[in-house]
Amino acid sequence: MGVVKRPPVLLVHGILGQRHLYWNLFASRLKGDGFRVHEVQLPYSMLGDIRIAAGRLKEKVEATCKGDKAEQVDIVCHSAGGLVARYYIKFLEGHKRIHHLILLGTPHKGTYFSFVLPLLRVAGQAKPGSNLIREIDEADAPDVPTTNFWSPVDGIVIPPENAKLAGPKVRNVQVDWMHHWGFLVSGSVYKRVHDALVGELPAVPSA
């Protein structure tokens, strides 16, 4: 049997994402396991508008598909990067390009931590009940296979249950005792993400 050529993996950062720093350990692990990995650098280190960032994500996906001669990509997002990916799927036809979406600690229903950063555009969009969150939730667009990791002790997504996601193709995975930034460095989380990417993550009830 030949070697299965998997889609390239794009890593999408959250607030204050710096290339080669934010995802350095995670990217190193993926490359060590044979994945083709690309980091997406969003405008203003993801301190600005999520809609604009979604446009940049689309550009990166198209460039990656062309460069890697791939029809689709897998995307792994942390924090607000997950909102960027969901906007891309809902409004910029991202569902055509995403093979599997993996989300780590994304404030799908917003987070009250946003009130600590009142001057940031992204913080206003990530508040519970914001126009952008309602816009994403109410949009009628095809879903993509999604594995959504969340933690009851996230510490940044407040309340933590706001990191859960509903949808016909969504699998919620609860990760106990994991802080918001721990998703990026935890070996156990990486193992689960790896298994999800290769289709070996055991079925779990939607949390």
Helical content (DSSP H or I, runs of 4+): 25-40%
The number of E-state strands comes to 6
Return the string of H and E elements.
Answer: EHEHEHEHHEEH
Mean pLDDT over the residues: 92
- Annotation field: number of helices: 6
CATH C-level name: Alpha Beta
Number of domains: 1
The coarse overall form would be globular
Q: Major β-sheet, in short?
A: 6 strands, parallel
Please state how the strands of the largest beta sheet are arranged side by side.
Answer: 2-1-3-4-5-6
CATH architecture designation: 3-Layer(aba) Sandwich
CATH superfamily: Alpha/Beta hydrolase fold, catalytic domain
Radius of gyration: 16 Å
Give me the secondary-structure category: alpha/beta
Low-confidence stretches: none
- Straight-line N-to-C gap: 37 Å
Share in β-strands: 5-15%
CATH topology: Rossmann fold
Task: Write a concise synopsis of the structure shown.
This protein is an alpha/beta fold. Helices cover 30% and strands 15% of the residues.
Defining traits:
Rossmann fold; 30% helix; six-stranded parallel beta sheet; alpha/beta; 6 helices; 6 strands; 207 residues; globular
Explain the overall architecture.
The protein has a single domain, classed as Rossmann fold (3-Layer(aba) Sandwich). Strand 1, helix 1 and strand 2 form a beta-alpha-beta unit. It has helices at residues 24-32, 50-68, 81-91, 121-125, 131-138, 187-197, and strands at 9-12, 37-40, 73-78, 98-104, 146-150, 170-174. It starts with 8 loop residues before the first strand and ends in a 10-residue tail after the last helix. The protein has 6 helices and 6 strands. The chain is α/β, with parallel strands linked by helices and 207 residues long. The longest helix is centred in the first third of the chain and has 19 residues, at 50-68. A 6-stranded parallel β-sheet has the order 2-1-3-4-5-6, sandwiched between helices.
